[in-house]
Task: inverse folding
């Protein structure tokens, strides 16, 4: 909405304010680990202070440093790509719902008023598909949110199914085939609408893919081992040079590293309720509003024609 | 237009001139922060000059440096990809408008002169769709710019709608379905044109996606925290070696870093009015000119045939 | 399923636990090589301890270090892209099976009860295609797992074929063409379903591509040579500074490097039985369950209509 | 053609020869700037030699170095992607011309010999489209090169148009629609050919996009400022260590950096006449030859049939 | 085939064996240059040993090092992408041949036995297309390999053509159009098969693109100049520290750098006969075997029906 203004704000005022923002940042989840690193560094400093030489000059390990740095960025990229792919999929879902609803509304002939009622019910099924997908991705059961968009009988039936969105897709397809058999649409229109319906099911499957296939475990384990090793060797490298400043500096550096990794974990599954997850509720609401707008639309051209022909 | 010349110029003369260009660069927006960093560095130098040893040798933090460097580039890449995707989408919109208008103009049969008037009105609706999308992306209300391309009644109606471009798409679809029912196009042609219309709505949805989904907040916050930490630790690292040169050098380095980040923020939303945003007005004007050209075209082959058959 | 919970867990508790996880990590496969590097480093240290100066200051080789680091990450990226492309392909297979089965179930007219039996048999052929593809990718022969989804005669025939999935695709196509000739579907529906069948065969071919085309041998050899050279030169660089700590430090660094390379090798072929491979058995089971759900479905809208029309 | 040989040559002999190649390299365009850097470095050395201590130890600026390095590579990647996308688009244009010409030649029925003449004229229009696109991308007016492929009347008309390729596309579409109305092709074939024509117009639009949308100005300015700053601070860093060798070393390093940037600028617009631009003339000639080959082809199968049926 | 086993082997035994593999590695082609670098380094060492101080401390050139490292990796990525795109294209060709042959075999009606003969001849033309493409990409003339898959008359004609694969595509298209005119397929099926044929020609064009458009010359030249400069400055940097060890160390480092570059050159054109090129012969053989399998197939469902209906 007023993003133009937001954009300007991001350029000027809130730069220094964003830095202190707690909500939506990963600080809460990494603070304990940063604190643990600092305590460990303090321990090392105390031991060193007693004269036990445990300082290690490790600067030569250039390749491990590059590898760790690049792996962290690989993690970041991969997680962000999953997030962005998820967003693209939901964008596709909005587009497809818009296109399919417009086609439905324009092309299916109405012979009596019950046809229009059925048409509107089917338009609402499109929104129901999106909401059922959202619930499915969040592992939530069918609930009241869906009730508004489904005929009562269908709503009851959904409770007994393993995979609610697929059943809704089945009902939409069934309605289209029925219209085709009633000669309200021709077979090309049927095929085109089936393709849009297929796209909706493709989006569902792709979201399930993102949800169910995290980054291979071997990467996650190896990366966490490297991060831990790195954070634990930091005090040995710094204690000689920095003395009592070792603990705060180690805290800063481990904050940098652990933060990156934590963000990766947080946005890897973008379908949840976190502050950084996709605004699925809002997207579903946009679809609903678009459909409701469409229903209130009396097409200007056709309207005239219909008035003339009647 | 005379880009060939521009290209040559870029190779030779303006290299040194571009460097001093103020307009379009991010210098205005980052100057206050660069200045703040320099002042801070000066403060540190003064404290150090009083003999208080606050110098810190931090060169060992190779991994945080790599991570910060790569994150800044990740930010740059991501922002540029959004910018370039936005440009691609508008390119797709131009192509689709060209293809759909050509198909409309060539294939829809005309029985009387009012058919042609209606056809021309629909071609202009395509431009209206692009302009309405532009206004929608800039959160601007329906305005005079659209009036030229819309029948008056439609223009008035648009003021009452939530989502003007979708309504225009609805009118175009409605016109096509009407032609199909009047047997002026067959159902294959209808389906093909509906697909092009779907593409136009897909472009609209994808632009909304870019606009409404910035980079996850957690990244933005973490990156800004790292940038701030880095700039604030710079004087401690340099004060011992550089003395009174610390402040200008810190200003230079923070200029480098803050500039990258500011560019990312600026081109992340490419649909605004900034010097670095997409030239949407010009793109819309290109569409308009192409449509007007098309309307003045009398197809050479068909023209002969029509003359013969009449 | 309860991934929402898992996600939360990943944020809090299991961070430190994951690090010690043996199963699924690459430690077992690289441990011998890490040990060999450590022993070599120990040997170098002993020789050095006898006063033979074999220390080499090699820090200047910045470009080889960058190249090795980036090559390792290139390896990682490439292997992960293959893994993720494999997952996407199986996701496409699920989607296509869902779409094709829904279309089949909704659109093919039934004249008598044997038609329905044949329809169900064909739906099961879709699952059989997926399972046959899985077995083919694992170089396993046709086995009992397939028997449930195939008519007995077809099952027997499969044993004599070079490429079982292609034959199953042929049977599905043959069934569709037969329905078309019996006028149970029209030619548009036939074409649309053939396209979905083509997609299934495309997935098969793309999986074979991933399986049969590893990263070019020249890269693999060059990378392994560089890794070996790097690990063998490490002790010479460290022995002067670290003394008897050389061996454990070299072990740590070679663990980092060899681990990355081993993960690359492990996930390059994602169709096997490793802990890090794709869960193909589970994916096939999902398809089976979706198909069985579909078969039990009595479409609500059509059901009414059929009752009325009968 | 004899690229196999070329490939071999690249492996063996010309390695050392390529290095000295002047034509096609960016040396001519960057030499003045490299020379300027060397002179500046010499000046600094002379000043230093007079005992004025202007040496600055700047090695600690790791992050700016990484950022500059990665930005240069970002520039390189982006420019190369534009180049490669341009090449892909022209590849698509060749493919589409081949497919559309083959379809035209095979499927359009001929009733009398004038039909064949018209068919051949339309095939040549496809080449004319490619050439007109080339001229349009180079901002050149319609010229003799096009005359061979266009009917005279069309050629004259093109001079009056803003956007020649679009008009040629219009004529091709018009011809197809005419054949459809003459029942020489059916509506499916018409739709399929229209889609190929749409692809050709998509290629045109995408090339215009590459041409008209350079990398955002803010990046170009910021990058050039960083490059200049870097080159100007080099002598201060080196003068203490290298003495009179400073100037040649600075020349070498600035040669590296400026070369990368100059290549980026040169291939960013790949449609010109530079040695590194796409061989558009040759690509157009390939299309022409393919079309002329096609025209001389008498299909073996059909030929028999026609002989039999006549 | 027994890749599962190979995979296991790669994990365990052959790790140390791969390192010594000569065939398929780039060692043969870079050995002379590595040797030249070592000799140059030896010369520098001898000169230095005579007391002439030519040592240069160059470690400060961080940006050129990063740029060279990243450029080498850019080269690697680009070359690998071309290789992988080539492999994908041939995968697409296999898939399309499978889909088109299955469609042909299932859908084209046979009225007499000559129809079947012609059908089989056309299936073999698909393999001929792949082989002709392979020969074309290797700049080899039409040869005996093609004779088996072509009618004699066509084979003779191919010798006179500039672009054999395009002519074969023309014959396939011609056959399909002929079947359509004989009412053996309907127009939807014709359109769908034409689209698959278009895909085959697209693959051909895309392979030509990869073959004929190497990385822009400016990059190749600049990269080789940088590599040479880097290798020649290495001895000056090392001679002070390493003494007589300079030559072997320089040889190792130049081996690393030159190897990367040589791999890039080798896999840039993946259609040749090198050990690292794509196994085109094997891919063509797979297609042949799939087609021959298909021909021997008597569809189980249809077979019954045909038996019943006859």
Result:
């Amino acid at each position: 909405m007023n993003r133009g203004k937001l954009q300007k704000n991001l350029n000027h005022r809130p730069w220094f304010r964003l830095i202190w923002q707690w909500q939506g940042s990963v600080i809460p989840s990494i603070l304990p680990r940063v604190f643990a690193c600092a305590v460990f560094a303090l321990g090392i400093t105390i031991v060193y202070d007693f004269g036990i030489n445990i300082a290690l000059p490790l600067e030569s390990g250039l390749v491990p440093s590059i590898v760790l740095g690049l792996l962290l960025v690989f993690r970041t990229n991969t997680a962000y790509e999953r997030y962005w792919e998820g967003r693209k999929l939901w964008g596709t879902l909005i587009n497809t719902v818009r296109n399919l609803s417009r086609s439905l509304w324009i092309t299916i002939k109405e012979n009596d008023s019950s046809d229009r009622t059925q048409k509107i019910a089917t338009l609402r099924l499109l929104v129901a598909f999106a909401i059922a997908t959202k619930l499915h991705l969040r592992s939530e059961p069918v609930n009241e949110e869906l009730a508004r968009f489904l005929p009562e009988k269908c709503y009851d039936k959904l409770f007994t199914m393993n995979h609610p969105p697929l059943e809704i897709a089945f009902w939409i397809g069934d309605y289209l085939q029925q219209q085709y058999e009633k000669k309200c649409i021709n077979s090309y229109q049927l095929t085109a609408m089936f393709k849009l319906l297929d796209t909706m099911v493709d989006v569902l499957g792709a979201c399930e893919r993102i949800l169910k296939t995290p980054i291979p475990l071997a990467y996650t384990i190896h990366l966490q081992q490297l991060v831990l090793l790195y954070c634990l060797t930091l005090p040995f490298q710094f204690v000689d040079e920095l003395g009592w400043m070792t603990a705060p500096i180690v805290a800063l550096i481990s904050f940098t590293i652990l933060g990156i990794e934590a963000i990766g974990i947080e946005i890897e599954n973008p379908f949840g309720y976190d502050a950084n997850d996709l605004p699925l509720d809002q997207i579903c609401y946009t679809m609903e509003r678009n459909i409701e707008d469409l229903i209130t639309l009396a097409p200007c051209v056709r309207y005239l024609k219909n008035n003339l022909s009647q």
